[in-house]
Specification:
The protein contains three helices and seven strands. It is 25% helix and 41% strand. The chain has a single domain, classed as Alpha-D-Glucose-1,6-Bisphosphate, Chain A, domain 4 (2-Layer Sandwich), CATH 3.30.530. Strands 1-7-6-5-4-3-2 form a seven-stranded antiparallel sheet.
Amino acid sequence: MGVKNFVSEVKLKVSPSRIFKAMTTESNDVLPKVAPGVFKDTKVVEGSSYGPGCVVETTIVGGTNFKYKIDDIDVDKCLIKYTELGGERIGNTFEKVYHEVISEASGDGGTVIKFNSKYFAKGDAEPNDDDIKLHAEKSSAIYGAVSEYLIANPNICA
């Protein structure tokens, strides 16, 4: 099983705590409003709350649901570590994908989101750099759309 590491970041014009809440603990309220043609809902499907050990599933409209286990979450530090267990990215190539995502203040009132992802290939499968970059671009686009939504709605995740 091969492992490929991928690091990326995105800069946003919203505070770390707001984007963190919108993408984690309040994603069920935010994501379907930002992209109703993509996201139906997000819910905890194993465990009693949104915290370490729970499994969260995001229902994708017309696609493969995204399922992940929260390994660690620190709301004060705007940090989440989670392992993807199912979804489009997993497919036939990956056993799992592990992510560390931290939202840090950028100094201008905005945020720098830092992604560190480890892709664990199934068997002899070879991770494709272009596929990994495409998924990173999709994630960045979602974060950007959520940021714009939060800017337009200053009371959301405040």
